[in-house]
Write a structure and sequence with these properties.
Two copies of one chain form a homodimer. With 166 residues, chain A is mainly α. Chain A has two domains: 3-85, Arc Repressor Mutant, subunit A; 89-165. Chain A is built from seven helices and three strands; from the N terminus they run ααβααββααα. The first copy, chain A, has helices spanning 3-20, 25-36, 43-50, 54-66, 89-116, 123-150, 154-165; strands spanning 41-42, 70-74, 81-85. In chain A, strand 2 and strand 3 (81-85) form a beta hairpin. The interface between A and B is large, with 56 and 56 residues. Chain A binds a DNA duplex (30 and 30 nucleotides) through helix 4.
DNA sequence: TTGAATTTTCAATAATTTTTGAAACTTTTA
DNA sequence: TAAAAGTTTCAAAAATTATTGAAAATTCAA
């Protein structure tokens, strides 16, 4: 396999992978492209390499910046903005996990908290409360782990891994 | 909040939550509904309670069965099929994690394995390989943890939790 | 067997999500 | 300050994904 072919395959797959994680295909493809590029590249290069419009490129680059996965850099003498991806995959994983926790776990916990307060003494009501409580307890468990995981560094992660495996 | 209102809110939110996890809204809503029901219910009840068509109800119930989240049961004297959800939230989490690992992590690892084999001695090629290798190493780390997590039970999970937190 | 009850399939339609591209806006240079 | 260079916005269009509903297939009781 040639390098250009391998890069293409990686970028496409990263895009497809993104869709399964609730991220849109193009955002993930832009991320994949930037992971492949050692140097910062411009919006025009992203547009050209992925064959997408300026608006689309701009929006998805901004989204990646919001997630903390991409940084804006300026080239000396250049007026244009250039972009570079965080390459440390542990940091990438932490950033993604942190954002997903915030966007997915927190909202559901709020809902669970609300519906737990239901006033109902019937058997049906008790069963519902029990079910909701168990989900919330589990969500708390997951939340704690994710918080620890995302507040830490590679070393802690490796240590934890060893602990778990022992 | 009344019980019916709380259930409705829970079901709707579970549906929305699903969309963020790459599951379609209706599949998650059917799951939410079944989590609320102590007894097994029929396709017709699912259709009626969620206001969806027979085809839609059928497809999403089958999908939930594929994931192992729902079981088909027969009521004595009834020809119709009834469905009941797994209520143990730890088991639910394990089933979902197992399925997502299979659908999301495995395919990307296969791609990484392929693109790692690129023949290229240039600096650019080396950098690409290094990047892909790091991702694959991390994916392996995640894979191991998920495998352990999903091959085990609630007790192991709690023990692990304590280990991590200490 | 037969046929009524039930489940499944899938082409057509609807709903949702993504993308485009040009206008508006902002920043920088001359 | 003017205008060129670059960035952002967003309504309309395109693409994708989900849903319907009726026909086909299956199951089961008689």
């Amino acid at each position: 396999m040639k390098l250009s072919e391998a890069k293409q395959k990686f970028i496409d797959s990263w895009g497809t992978f993104g869709t399964k994680w609730g991220i849109n295909r193009t955002m993930a493809a832009v991320h994949g492209l930037l992971l492949c590029e050692e140097q910062a590249i411009s919006t025009d290069e992203v547009m050209e390499k992925l064959g997408i419009s300026r608006g689309n490129a701009n929006m998805n680059i901004r989204a990646l910046i919001d997630w903390g996965l991409v940084k804006k850099v300026y080239q000396p003498g250049e007026r244009m903005e250039f972009f570079i991806a965080e390459k440390d995959i542990y940091k990438v994983a932490i950033l993604i996990t942190r954002e997903r926790r915030r966007r997915e776990l927190e909202p559901i916990r709020e809902i669970l908290k609300e519906v737990k307060e239901v006033e109902d003494k019937t058997a049906e009501g008790k069963q519902f409360k029990k079910m909701v409580n168990e989900i919330d307890e589990f969500a708390g468990f997951a939340d704690n782990i994710l918080e620890k995981l995302t507040k830490t560094d590679r070393l802690w992660m490796l240590k934890t891994f060893k602990k778990i495996m022992s």
